[in-house]
Design brief:
This protein has 339 residues and is α+β, with helices and mostly antiparallel strands. The protein is 41% helix and 18% strand. It has helices at residues 12-18, 23-30, 34-42, 49-59, 63-66, 73-87, 93-107, 112-118, 123-130, 138-147, 152-165, 167-182, 193-196, 201-208, 326-329, and strands spanning 211-219, 222-225, 232-234, 246-249, 263-268, 278-282, 295-304, 310-315, 318-322, 330-338. The protein starts with 11 loop residues before the first helix and ends with a strand.
Amino acid sequence: MALEEICFPNNIRNIRLSRGMRMTALAKKSGLSLSAMSKVEKGVRRLKQSQLMQLCGILGCKLSDIFIKADDSKASLWKSEMQRRLVENETSGLKVFGAGIRILRRGLGKTIAQAAKDAKMTLSVYHKIEIGQREVYEREIDNLAKALGKTVDGMFKAIAELYNSGALAKQIDKAEERVREALTVGKSATGSDIGASIYGATVYDSVRKNLVPVYGTPEGKNLSFAKSDENMIALPAKLKNGGSVYAVRAPANRLGAMFPANSYLFVSPSLMPSAGDLAVVFEEDFEKIKPGAKASARVVMLKEDKSGNLIGVLTNPEEKIQIKNPKNRLHKVVQVVLE
């Protein structure tokens, strides 16, 4: 029996075990069946962005923790298996047959799910046939041909014609190229060092670009601020493609009843706020705050004093903050969102 395709190698099982959590509990909390959760941990089932973030919340880990690193033993095993599949049976009849089935199915405008249903197969089995990882048994041939609108002889003849024309070679090459790309741990699209060490960096980046780090959390009347991706939150749709943004948790009872409990402020470091705006003000220049280092900040309403200088105002209690070097110490709050 063919091995299942490893499409998303991950560290979920190790993290779960380190938390002393059973798979049944993780499956229940994440809303997945036990079978689906098992496939996720084995790396043979992909996850949606929302599911990835949900698992991070349940397991209490960072997004980057989910992905295995290049020096992990699991990475070596996964890479060896993918290499084996790449070089084994380059002219395999299963690859040719699967590529032919895929082209015929697409020619009918059918989805994989529709074709699997018409062929009376599970989606997993049908998919493995198309990618050349599973043989087709005699009892299955007739249903497969019918799903493609052909007789058995007609199906094999059509595949032979595709093969002779060279159309299947392109299809097979595309599949192999995807495997080769997966085997390469490249530089992360975000430019971060951590991305370059992660298997599945493309997946990491596709999720990461829709998330922003939570840099600030309330600490008394101030914010405890650190440039870290320890906690992440989904980026509001209106702010996508709007440049660099980070989030802070709103400090309760610091600006009257303006902020409900459990709300987040999304902040742009590239926009200079003006009088009337909400802003985050730092005690030191933002550029001097090193990644991971703790800094102090406040959320204020900006006003102008009699001299036209910006001051920060907190209304509970009434307090005014003189702002030094506003160009490097003020960031504009662009959106407030409830958790």
